Amino acid sequence: MDDLKGKYLGQIADAADETALESIRLAAIGKKGEISLKMRELGRMTPEERQVAGPALNALKDEINSALAAKKAALGDAALDERLRGEWLDVTLPSRPRRAGTLHPVSQAGEELTAIFADMGFSVAEGPRIETDWYNFDALNIPGHHPARAEMDTFYMHRAAGDNRPPNVLRTHTSPVQIRAMEAQGAPIRIICPGGVYRADYDQTHTPMFHQVEGLALDTDISMANLKWVLEEFCRAFFEIDDVELRFRASHFPFTEPSAEVDIRCSWAGGALRIGEGDDWMEILGSGMVHPSVIAAGGIDPEVYQGFAFGIGIDRLAMLKYGIPDLRAFFDSDLRWLRHYGFASLDVPTLRGGLSR
Ligand code: DAH
To answer: How far apart are the CA of 148 and the centre of ligand 1, in A?
Structure first.
């Protein structure tokens, strides 16, 4: 009995996998197993012999069964450990360049303009795309009856029946971030706010979602001359060509006084969009000296602080700089277009290293 026990427990301990365990089980306690055969011999024994051998064989069978079960569980744990080791993945490793995706021209333009404005001391502020009526309009000196509201082609969010608050809107411009940033930071302040905006409009140079970058600079001694210098300096750096021609046009915005729009000289000849030549002008931004009511809405004293603001169309900048004639293609997600106009995702634009090389 002791020999049998030593033999099978030893084999179980040495078994390498579940298949080996199963053959040991068959050899020992299967129908024709060694121990099962011994149990069949019990019938031929004397009652006295049987009284000793019977319980001993049963105990041995139980012992082998539990040794098998324990080993099986251990093998299962080891197999799981092995699998976990094999499938381990270090998600902190850098991506491989092969089959890398590319940066969308809007993202690229956003990175470039952020680098330029950062160099001029502007930091980045952000706000929500679903905006309240107050931030998107009232705080920017656009009260409920103002015609500018109708001109904006605003997308309104749903309000439950009985809720009489004005509906929230998909922000029609990045200007509300001016108010949020003034509230959060106070003055003096120098920020840009890049991000998506929405208007119900669709043609070659308009899509229902597009991108703007808002700029705001408030201090005790800021004038329109500073605004003009910042915008000219920005355009020269962004387009990376010296003969960028800008046209400042007197304009009107409720949130600035005085206001100016800026167009850039370009050509559409032969269906190709080119900058720095031609007889066409493309409007790229609105700007002006921030209206005192807007400064007050941001919680800042307009008697002490003044400054300028601007809103630039990022998609327009990308179209002009990279010669992409149709804005609608920007948002078609056509892989061929994305590969053609995309930028290497690991090249970070800097003023020193080059913006778009
Ligand atoms: N919010 C204006 C728009 O979407 C753009 C703009 C104009 C922003 C003048 C400004 C500004 O900050 O001063 O058309």
So the answer is: 12
